[in-house]
Amino acid sequence: MLRTVLLGPPGAGKGTQAVRIVEKYNVPHISTGDIFRENIKNGTELGKKAQEYMNKGELVPDDLVIDLATSRLLEDDCKNGFLLDGFPRTVYQAEKLDEFLTAHGMKLDKVIDIEVEKEELITRLTGRRVCKKCGASYHVVNIPPKKEGICDICGGELFQRADDTVETVENRIEVYNEQTMPLVDYYKRADNIVTIDGALPLETVFAEIVKSIGE
């Protein structure tokens, strides 16, 4: 049984660690992006509402995000726990999540905050290259392809995504800090957050996460 929230800025390695956590603890990985796509695909009322905002290029309002996320937590596969990723993003969302969990006789076991210095995040994100054909991901320093600019898997051309340029990356980190850093303080007050150094090697980061969960 593990009910946890995963926090961390873009480039902190949350995706990699999320895969390992759900494998070890056998809980569903719940990201808001996946929830939106699922509801939109299935044509649910919540999905239709979310689509309206997204079509206008607007952020989906907090209350709608909360409704989407909490309805997902009531599904059968969440009975033995879950890993929330991308939700909550604001203190208001966190408060509403706490209210929902309390109302259903549940509580968060741990909030895991993966922290990485800004300079390291910029290096990680601006160095990312993606294959145009198969979508495989590389990094010019950490995971370089065998041949520069060419995908090892399918031979496709590698490119830098528009949201991986220095300017965009700095903006994404800034937005994260403004929106989500108050969340870290919120969970510190609740005394159920653990901070992990995301600059450590992947295996070490995962070992620290497991140790903090205490299982």
From TrEMBL:
Class in the EC hierarchy, top level: transferase
Cited InterPro entries: Adenyl_kin_sub, Adenylat/UMP-CMP_kin, Adenylat_kinase_CS, Adenylate_kinase_lid-dom, P-loop_NTPase
Biological process according to GO: AMP salvage
Binding, ATP: 11-16, 128, 137-138, 200
Reaction it catalyzes: AMP + ATP = 2 ADP
GO cellular component term of the entry, any: cytoplasm
NCBIfam families tied to this protein: adk (TIGR01351), PRK00279.1-2 (NF001380), PRK00279.1-3 (NF001381), PRK14527.1 (NF011100)
Matches recorded under HAMAP family: Adenylate_kinase_Adk (MF_00235)
Provenance organism: Emergencia timonensis
Lineage of the species this protein comes from: Bacteria, Bacillati, Bacillota, Clostridia, Peptostreptococcales
Function field: Catalyzes the reversible transfer of the terminal phosphate group between ATP and AMP. Plays an important role in cellular energy homeostasis and in adenine nucleotide metabolism.
Protein name (record): Adenylate kinase
Residue numbers spanned by region NMP: 31-60
Subcellular compartments: Cytoplasm
Record-annotated Adenylate kinase active site lid domain positions: 128-163
Positions of the UniProt region annotated as LID: 127-164
Gene: adk
